[in-house]
């Protein structure tokens, strides 16, 4: 790794970052690729002039500095990492996604979720603004709620391994939401921040019954290490 020599003297260009990024978003984003993409989008949108300001996914797929920053090894394909980061940022609501297409051709646009971006998307939907390609909006901007169990995992355990996501979603479909939330609380209280521990609580409740007449705190005592 080459050491950074520091910022040079004289006039240096700066990119303003909204305070809300540090106050709210920084604590929520646990995936490094999503964080890098978010910062890159803020930088790229600020450097643009005029209205509207956006980047297409095709443009991001050709951004060499961003792609290099998203991967650790030379042999790793950066495009799947980029697409996962885009999905995460759009799902969180940091970026807004708009797809416009006609005759089987589509262009995917990304805006920062700020007043200008929201205004531009509204104008496109109403037919008041034309981007690179005219046509019907095939994918309306709807913020997709992230499954709660994924949020609970990242808040209470840590970075979510991609291979574990499917198992968590299966658990969310199997057990009541209140059970899942309480099982994570028990794991935190007992300093056992592992999915295997949370899963064992849920499986036992399912097998033996959770509402068995015990006091609310009794179940927690049963799982103390």
The H-level CATH homologous superfamily of the largest domain, spelled out, is: Winged helix-like DNA-binding domain superfamily/Winged helix DNA-binding domain
The order of strands across the largest sheet is 1-3-2-4
N-to-C span? 43 Å
Query: Count of DSSP E strands?
Result: 4
Oligomer: single chain
Largest sheet: 4 strands, antiparallel
By CATH, the architecture of the largest domain is named: Orthogonal Bundle
Rg is 22 Å
Q: How helix-rich are the residues, as a percent range?
A: 40-55%
H/E topology pattern: HHEHHHEEHEHHHHH
Shape estimate = globular
* pLDDT averaged over residues: 83
Number of domains as seen in the coordinates: 2
CATH topology of the largest domain: Arc Repressor Mutant, subunit A
Structural class based on helices, strands and sheet pairing = alpha+beta
Q: Quickly count the helices.
A: 11
Q: How are the elements arranged and paired?
A:
Elements: H1 19-28, H2 32-47, E1 55-56, H3 57-60, H4 64-70, H5 78-92, E2 95-102, E3 105-112, H6 115-125, E4 137-139, H7 148-156, H8 162-174, H9 177-189, H10 195-208, H11 218-222
Question: What would you say this structure looks like, in words?
Answer:
- The chain is 52% helix and 9% strand.
- With 225 residues, the chain is an alpha+beta fold.
- The protein folds into two domains: 19-139, Arc Repressor Mutant, subunit A (Orthogonal Bundle), CATH 1.10.10.10; 148-222, Arc Repressor Mutant, subunit A.
- A hairpin with a 2-residue loop joins β2 and β3.
- The radius of gyration is 22 Å and the shape is globular.
- The model is unreliable at 134-144 and 213-225 (pLDDT under 50).
